[in-house]
Amino acid sequence: MTEERIITVAVVDDHPLFRRGIISLLETLDGVEVVGDAASVDDAIDLVDRVVPHVVLMDLDLGGGSGIDATKSIVRRHPSVAVLVLTMLGDDQSLFAAMRAGARGYLLKVASPREVERAIHAVADGEVLFGADVAARAVAFLSGSASERAARPFPELTERETEVLELVARGLDNGSIARTLVLTNKTVRNYVYGIITKLGAGDRSALIVIARDAGFGVTA
Predict the structure, then answer these.
(1) How far apart are CA 34 and CA 27, in angstroms?
(2) Do 105 and 128 form a contact (C-beta atoms < 8 A)?
(3) Sheet holding 105-108, edge to edge
(4) Is the pTM of this model over 0.90?
(5) Could you say which of 1.10.10.10, 1.10.357.10, 3.40.190.10, 1.10.3720.10 is the CATH number of the domain covering 159-213?
(6) Could you read off the pLDDT tens digit of each residue along the chain, which spans 220 residues?
């Protein structure tokens, strides 16, 4: 009788409630052991250096830092560690950037517990796995057919700023954006101000025009 393999997992997410929730989920899974959690790029790298888990569940928006940067550093320092992205960001740019950084999997935070469990086991076994919502685009990227037009128009913006800009371009007010992204009104206000400053827009109305001209806020 062979002993069951235990997959060690580290969780990296700057949202305390979501981080606690995903840890609680993982603790219910057979063969999975949570060995630590972190909320920033530096803390994530330090954690992985200490425990070298089999899998890192990685959010892409880490407050003032980027999960892409954390993924690059972790994969470079520990090639055996599988990074599985778990994010709210479903855009092509975020997906492709994560793949270039070395992530072995990509799930949206709407994924079911069963999908998360399956993905953890898959990447721990050396497979590459993407959620159904992003699988087609991942295949296009891997096959070399992804268009350069999928690149984000404003690379100076962070992933979260890009997400906020998309919602601003759709005409949502700060309160609606806060509810959509599970943020405070003050945090959204600060993001909008930062975006206006970075893009040189005179005000929110000018920002919406700039964003829509770049393809933001366009629904099918």
Answers:
(1) 7
(2) yes
(3) 32-38, 7-12, 55-58, 82-87, 105-108, 129-130
(4) no
(5) 1.10.10.10
(6) 445 789 999 999 999 999 999 999 999 999 999 999 999 999 999 999 999 999 999 999 887 788 999 999 999 999 999 999 998 887 777 888 888 889 999 998 888 899 999 999 999 999 988 876 666 666 666 565 544 444 567 877 877 888 899 899 988 999 999 888 888 898 999 999 989 988 888 899 999 999 988 888 865 4
